[in-house]
Every structure is written in C-alpha cells, then in structure tokens.
Amino acid sequence: MVILEDKAGLRSFQIFVRYPIPNGTKVLLNLHANGTMAATDNDGSQDIGELVYACSLKHLPPVVLTCLLPRSYPSTCAPYFTISAKWLDEPKVSYLCAMFDEIWTELPGQEVVYRWVDWLNSSSWSCISLNDNIIFVPDGTSDVADEHAIARKLLVDSTIPLMQNYNEKRSQELFLKNLHECGICLSENTGINFIKLPCHHLFCMKCMESHCRIHVKEGNLTMLICPDTTCRSPLPPSILKSILGDDCYMRWESFATQKLLDTMPDLVYCPRCDAACLEVDNDAQCPECFFTFCALCKERRHVGKECLTPAEKISILRERHKKYSLPEKQLLKEQREINELLDVCEVLRNSKQCPSCKMAISKTYGCNKMTCRNCGKFFCYRCNKAISGYNHFWYGDCLLFEDNNQGRRFGIFEEPDDEEDADDDEDADDGEDLEELEPELVRLYPCPICGRRNEKFSTNNHILCIGCRGHYCALCRKRVLRSSGHYGPRGCQQHTNP
User: Fold this and answer.
1) What pTM does this model have?
2) Where is the RWD domain (predicted)?
3) Which phi and psi angles does 463 have, rounded to 5°?
C-alpha cells in the first residue's frame, strides 16, 4: 500500500495485489481468429490444438487499485477507484470493476476497500486464468468497457516480453532479500552478498573472489569453473569481471589470450623480436623484422638439413665460447640460450607429456593422479594414460602413491597381504610401528566421491574432502548437500565424540 498526497483534502492511496503463482503456470497464445477461448475436455484437460506455448512465469505484474475517498464515504458514496492491469485485456479488467460495484451494492454504507482487496487477492484468479494457465487472445476492440478499467492496449505480442522482464526483475529482488547458503563455506547470508552463476549454483562473494583470484594468480585458467563438484561449468567473462578487480581481470585477459594463441598449431614467435608469426612447413618469416627461421630450432632457415637436438646445440655453443672471444652482450645472450636449453633437457628428462595436449608436466611429490594445467584433463603419471577418476588406481596395476609412507601422509592406506602380516609378527619393531598407526587409522573416513580418507576434526561429523572438495557425513558416509537438511532431529547428529 502506498499513501498518495491528499487532493483537495481527500485521502488517496494505491494498493498493489500480487498473485501467488501456482506451480506450472504457463502463458499461452490463443490463435483462434475469432478470439474465443480454448475448449476443454470433459475431464477438465485443456485442448491446446489451437494454442502456442509462450513462456512460464513465477511472478506476474501486480494489479494496482487506486482509491480516492470522498467526504461522504462510507455513509452515502463509494470510493472513486481505478483498476490498472496493463497485461490484461479490457473485458477482464472491466469484469473486476463490475465486481467492485456489486460488492458496494451488497454492503451500502460500509467500508468496502478491505473487502475489495480481499476479493482481488482470493477470488479473482479464476477470472484471469483458465486451468491455472493464462491465455491471451488476439487483440480486438470490446463494446463492454468500464471507465474504471485501465487495461492493455493493442499488440498482445509485446505484452509477454514485458511480463518476462517483470518476472526476471521480481525474481532478482527476492533473491537479494532472501537468505541463501554458500556451497563452499556453508554460511548463510542475504542474496546481496551472493553470486548466482548461470548454472544456478550460489556462492558468497568472499568465497568466489578467493576462488577466482587464486587461480588467476597461478595462471590456472582451467580451474575457473563452478566450484560445485557435480557441475564444473566454466565461469563467463561477465562474472569474472564483476568478481575480480581491474588489475586481476587484465591479468586473466592476458592469460586467456596467450592460452588461445598457444592452441594455434601454426603460430610461432620470432627469436629476434618476439613477434607472432605463421608457420608453413616448419618455416616462418617474421612480419616485423623479416627474419626467416626454422620453427623447430629457432635458427636460420635450413632447407634439407635436420634440426639440432638441444644437447647438440649446447655442445656447439660451449665449444664456440672456448674458441672465440665474443663480445660481452653476445656472450650473455648465448649463455641465456644455453640455460634455456638446459632447462628443456631437464624437463624432457624428468617429466611426462599430457596425453591430451602434449604439455610437459613434472611431478615433485604427491599421488600419480595428475591434472594438466593447460587443458585440465586427468592422466596417470605412472603409465601416462588419460583417466577420469580414481578407479584407474583401485582396479588397475598402477598405484596411487609410489610408497606407503607417502600414502599415509595423504590419508591413503593399503591393506597388507598375508606374507607381510607374518613378517610383521616376527619383527617386534614393525609391530610397534603398526600399533602407533592404529589410532590414526580410526580417525580417517573415506570420501564416498573419490575414496580419499579425511580426518574428522574435533566432534564435527561434517567433513570437507581435501581431494575432490566434496562434503560428506562421517556417520552415514553419504554426501551432504545442505547441512541444515542432513543434520537434525530426523537425520544424523552433527557433533559426536571422536
């Protein structure tokens, strides 16, 4: 309700009536040329042979009742009123006005504004919809028009986009006001502090900002995806721009552009001026300095000659330094080139190529399940095969960890076989070590998603998996989507003794 300014000492106000929309309400266009309503079968189902589905809405524009109370109200005169619903046609709005006049006739000399609003809110929906569907007929003129009615004009096809715009605006208003739970930190806050991704997952601003800034800082663009483990949809640039600052967003743009250029197989960089060049049959010519070079070894074009390996090139450069007295600038340049070639040799010796994009990746510690930072694909570091999860290590010949001590450090324990049990019984020192590990084994709980064993902190049974970032319960070993829905009087206890 909105109180308007008094006009000539008379009170006036507006009341906005919003209809609660039943689930599955659709807006339909009736293509009958004569504008008649669609027929219904005997069982009440709607014959949509002449209907075209337009859209489904959760919120309808309000019906606005404007009243001006005369001085003789309510003793002798009814309120002066108008009903505005610019998404309805004149016959329907005129019918609402006629019902107001009828209510005043039944209750002369009484206050009727509350009765009008109550009737609009509770009984007028059946006059607007048919079987909970709103049907628009082709535009036309009507002889039955009420002077109190403010309805839509012509062009029914432009009414539906206006209703869709209001539906989106109203949904956003309610989203900003209501409380939501973050899928990362599980805290609750109003929607104004949340970000709603195109995949409809919700996360608070702080968690999303930390999530994006960390991966942009590390240059790991493949992880700029929805944090929900069941979704993994990429974050659009508009979302990243609203989360990241100007400097961080420019850094992301630079990484994204460079990654796009790196995926072009015929693009190389000039070894003299570092300009981008197009490769043709392993040869390229720089458009800036016009240097023609081999795209493989970055030396002058050598038709009919094989390229030198990095080790051969290092040997030639070192021999050259011994035989000739080079200028300091040239010597520093070739020394940097030797260091780069040594790095390449080291990378090729202690790394493996991703089976998807052929990027060289080296493992320093951890498990054999590798994630390529260039393409985001998973592969096994031991057999160099592309994998999708941990099943490759549970049912294959490859081990997740190369040694047991490293597995214990990450919470993965292997069951000893019978021969090892016998040897352990004979060795007293090994038995003492196992006894020391038993309490640690009891406090680790396997994740139902990836199998990684995680520790339960204090008495909280809600565990966040370190490996797949999924949430699960330590008691029932089931996934937890909402903490408030899983724990409670009818569910598991969130806090129990270790």
Assistant:
1) 0.45
2) 1-127
3) -115, 135
